[in-house]
Design goal:
Structural class: mainly beta
Helix content: under 10%
Largest sheet: 9 strands, antiparallel
Distance between the termini: 7 Å
Order of helices and strands: EEEEEEEEEH
Strand content: 25-35%
Shape: globular
Oligomer: single chain
Length: 161
């Protein structure tokens, strides 16, 4: 298992920290873990797998004009489907990727720095048991979607290795 960012400078957000999985936000529950980093940081595959989706993730392309256009890369591997979001893709659907292989670069998701987070660029990582063609929507006061898993321990274990 490989950590998806080289030279990661921050702690993985947990519990009620900004960017942690399951944190209540203004309009929804956070479906992944945000790892703040620098624009252009390389993103590598955490494990061997097959690219099953490369899609627009945020921005005007998906009716979120308050964010920049970013992509998501979904890779099916032994841990499930890992979704690497808020990136620019280097791979295409059907590619088989090795653990540690370059799959993309982090690009700024936030249009402006509001002073709440360490960076306007981050890797947003989600984990799914299955992917049905839709990323999870988790409404406030709703139960966690069945196919959406908490990726925190996966990231923590990869950081230790």
């Amino acid at each position: 298992m490989r950590f998806p960012l080289k030279d990661y400078l921050y702690k993985i957000p947990t519990g009620i920290e900004f960017g942690a999985f399951g944190v209540t936000r203004k309009y929804d529950m956070h479906t992944g873990v945000d790892m703040y980093c620098k624009e252009g940081d390389r993103v590598v595959s955490m494990e061997e797998g097959v690219v099953i989706a490369v899609e627009w993730f945020t921005g005007p392309s998906v009716n979120m004009p308050w964010w920049n256009d970013t992509q998501a890369i979904a890779i099916k591997g032994k841990s499930g489907i890992i979704n690497y979001g808020e990136v620019n893709s280097h791979v295409k659907v059907g590619d088989v990727v090795a653990e540690g292989e370059l799959i993309g670069w982090v690009i700024p998701v936030l249009k402006q720095d509001k002073g709440k987070v360490p960076s306007t660029s981050m890797l947003h990582l989600e984990l799914y048991a299955e992917y049905d063609g839709n990323w999870a929507l988790w409404e406030v006061d709703e139960k966690q979607p069945k196919n959406l898993l908490n990726p925190t321990s996966l990231l923590q274990n990869a950081l230790i290795v």
